[in-house]
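Subject: complex prediction, re-run

Hi both,

The earlier run crashed halfway through, so I resubmitted it with identical inputs.
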Amino acid sequence: MTLSATLIRSAYRLQASARYAGIKGFFHKLLIDPRSHRRVVFDGVMITLVLSSVFLLIYEVRHDVGAWADGFEAFVVTVFILEYLLRMWLHNDSHRILIEHWERAELVGMRFHLAPVLWAMVKHKLAYMATPMAIIDLLAILPSYRPLRFLRIFLLFRLLKLFRYTRNLSVFGQVLVEKRFELYTLSIFVGSVVLIATVAMYLFEAEHPQPKVVSLMDALYWAVITITTVGYGDIVPQTTEGRIVAMVLVFAGIAVISFATSIIVMAFHEKMRELHDNRVFAEVERSEDVTIVCGYGRIGQVVAKRLAAGRDAFVIVDRSPEAVELARRHGYQAVAGDATDNTLLANLGLGRQASRILCLTHDDVSNVYITLTARQAAPAILIISRANKAETVRKLTQAGANHVVRPYEVVARMAAEFIGQPVAFDALYDVVTRARGVHLEPVTVSPGSWLDARRVGDIDLAARHLMLFGVIRPHASPAADGHAPYELRDAHFYFNPRPEFALHVHDILMLIGYEASLFQFKKHVGQHRSAWKPRGQRG
Amino acid sequence: MKPRFAVFGCNPLAIEVAWRLSMAKTPFVMVDSDAALVDAANKEGLVAELVDYTDDEALRAVGIGSHIDGMFALFTEDSENVFLAISARAIDPNLRIVAVCQAPEAARKLLAAGADKVVDPYEISGARVHELIERPEVVDLLEQTVFGQQDLNAAEITIPHHSWLHGVHLSVLRRVMTQNLILLGVVDLERGKELILSTRGIDHKLDYDDVLVVIGARSDIDAFRGLIERTSPPPDA
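This time it finished cleanly. Structure:
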């Protein structure tokens, strides 16, 4: 009773302890979390330790290195042991098992036995110890134990530890595991061919007056050397029968080699995409304020180019591998996949690092579906969607798009405006797109700013080479007297306000001017960068 | 009343342009050489005709070279648009031609073929998407005012030969104008198409055939037009 009571009490204490969770979290980040920066550093240190200890082992063979080498070896082994124990500790939470069992016993009203619980806890740890990586870890430690000195050769297993610290190397192992069925088939084939050849060779050759093949071992050695197409030539068949066996074996060898090569190449090829995608996900994980661009058609390309020019982080998703290939050739982060896939969107950090998603595929149905998926996954993000047909606009808005862009409409408007007044339209268009250094720039009146409560006439815009296009005032602020505002969705717009127009906090001045003048003005009012962020909520 | 504009093409984009023109109550003709597309446009409620655009006589029959001032080349094939622009430009050197292009490299060819303005639908849409990310308030504002249905318009006013403004400085005009307008700037077509922003340090000396670009309500713009077209300066100038 006392022992189990103490154990259960301490298990609950551990469960409740924030400090314990914190420490465990810290080591988890250090050793396991693939996204943590600390792990990268830790892996680097471990790789250095492994390489230097193996180097020392090689150097020791012919040189006398003295006492410090033993000290170093002891240090390395200590680190390895600590790491091994930590990993075992991190593998699972033993106190949870205890609590679980105890609570189950309480619930059913049965007597609580400690022994099976302890066995369950040990079983979990043993399961960890049986994993390939844990075995490698153990093999890297064991040979340092004096009585096991004969296992020194196994110190080279430390090199295998490198698998643990470099993700790309472990992919190699994964490839082999995934293709185990093919490799298994191949090895059975090779095994039987080699066996037959060995026996045949022995039977035919051993009876020859000057036999090259004296034992079965010789025959096996010859068969292996031949089937792998190495063919040293130290043992050659003397009899006609033996030569026939050799010829058959050579062809079998070519088949085996090509089959093996194709299996491994294929496996890597399949894995390549996943590897690449993982890299993209890791990259996204490290960035902030990412834009997900769905669809890399012409519009997607234009947007990507502009985002890249503005040094904004973005990632492209397209269903077609060709488009993804193209995007990668352009030097952008891209993954092939379906943007309606929740897992993919989550991997791309939707709602975390990714604050906006652009649905730009040429298919309206896809755009609506992506919009809906994204809106449900992340209610606060900005969604801009493309609509090809007029009737899709409403569906997209309903699905949760903040803005809808309809290419035909944009073009039609441009064309129609241009044909009426080409000069005015070009001028205005240049201002809107900032094509010629003339910008239309919003400047927000922040609380306590120089602009607060100032009259428009007192700003002396002309001397600053600026033009006030108008002032946007949110509906929440009181309306200005004597001005007829234009109605916007959630604000009034006062076009070309008179000099006596007094500014308010949260007003937005829309200023037209050259880039340099605008920059100067913003510096003057203490606003180096636009305080405006894209509105996250739905309009 | 004879239509002043011609829309070539009956594809969805052309139909969109046609609706926009009809909303602005601008008379136009709509033609295509593909009977199926013409039918589709007719079903939409637009009046479209079947015309072979490769035939110069047919183009003349549409009104190119006579009453047509401007045309839209909206075919989905860049080659068709280039051919159309070349044919139309040969018939009428003063015609205003707006063309769309599919491939970005076709834009230069279309300009060489005689188009005044080439619109790349993808470029424009992509730019808009980017603007929506970067500065949604600017796009929203213009969308709902200047480009939208509200009475706030951009207009261009060419200074006529008899105007009092010939040789007058821009600053004088700014002092005199009383309308609630923004005088965005001047385009001196003799010197190029670039807009001289009116806030720039240089006080531009106005000249006839200069184009003033203004933004404002329609009534103010009309009043301003009256001011420009005066032969003698207003009393307080």
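Chain B touches chain A through 70 residues (CB under 8 Å).

- K.
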